[in-house]
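To: structure desk
From: M.T.
Subject: fold request, one chain
Message: Could you run this one when you get a chance? Sequence is below, nothing fancy, just the single chain.
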Amino acid sequence: MEITKRMQQLYFPLAGRSIRMPRMFEDEHLQRCLDEQKYLFILNRMVVQFDPFEPKFHYISSRVYQHINETKQFDVLRSTRHFGPMTFFFAWHRCIDDLLYDMVRRDYLQNAAELIALLYKLHDMEPNYKDILKQIDEIKPKEDLALKELEKELKRASKDVKEDIQSTIGKTQVDFELDDLCLPFIEDYISKHALKKVQLEVATQTIKEINGEKRQLFEGISKAHGVA
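Reply: Done. Structure tokens follow.
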């Protein structure tokens, strides 16, 4: 397999890939990159240099994910192609608590519920995860461009007020409905399976209080503007 890879690189070179393994992936240099928290640089270089079936691919990605879990720098990979594989790695190894805490603290409650559902699915733990995912899909608004254009024409003034309220609060009515759905599911995981219960319980209680205040403000402003 190694010879095949070298021959392919000689005759059909892949841009950015070296015939020999770059020195940055040697343990000494890799550790230095990790200490400098160059996670995205390492992972981007890794996916060019190695194929997913190679042991080195899994060794390097594992080192990066574990280091991120230690430093709690999850947001570095958020909105990148590496966030999903990292999440899968944590769920596969049953070590989601730190990432879950980060999601709850940042008020990504839907993502937190989906992370727990992934853990349940991979390890066949709780069958009710399918219900929560189905309910999330039912609450989330479907993309309907024609309906959006119609709303712009018929309810432009009301919509502008709603957007102002949403930008002020940082949440929509749908967001509050999703929070009400996801929080009990998250709390159930914490009570049954979490290893860092106290930390997660404090985080969920804090975010419940913050979102309660946001909802109260949201409803007050909406009522003042006469927005349903």
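Reply (cont.): The chain has twelve helices and no strands. Let me know if you need anything else for the meeting.
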